[in-house]
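anyone seen this seq b4? input:
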Amino acid sequence: MPRAAGHMIGRLPFLSPAMKFSKSKWFIYTLLVGLIPILIRLLVWFVVTTNQVEPISAIELVTFGLVIHASVINEAEHLPAKDHEWKSALNGQAITFITLYGALYALAAFGDKVDGAVEADAIEEIAISLSSMSILLAIMNLHHFSTRSKR
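predicted toks r here
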């Protein structure tokens, strides 16, 4: 008699409901999902024969950063009560970055509508810098989350 498909979920380490935090689950659900807009833009850039599509855009980097920090807020909600200070620091950090990404998004969107009103290269460099910092902070937080879930 065939087994139900759901019995396999417990055997996959990144889908196990018993795990409080899983690095592979975070990687799949956060990092890869956050990269979808960037990967789609790269695919479009690769297949389009005109030079009208740039390989990278500030808007996609902003989206990536927002996904990363939303994930940090979500994971911080699962920290034990004794980690209140760490949780508050993470939430403050995430809200600060989300605010910066919001401002960057507004500038990038305005720059797309009004030619020459915003220095697009500067916005892109800031977006790359913020995204890089977001990844580093997320990796540091990822280590903390995995350490705390083992205790």
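Residues 5-19 have pLDDT under 50 and may be disordered. The chain is about 70% helix and 0% strand. kinda curious what u guys think
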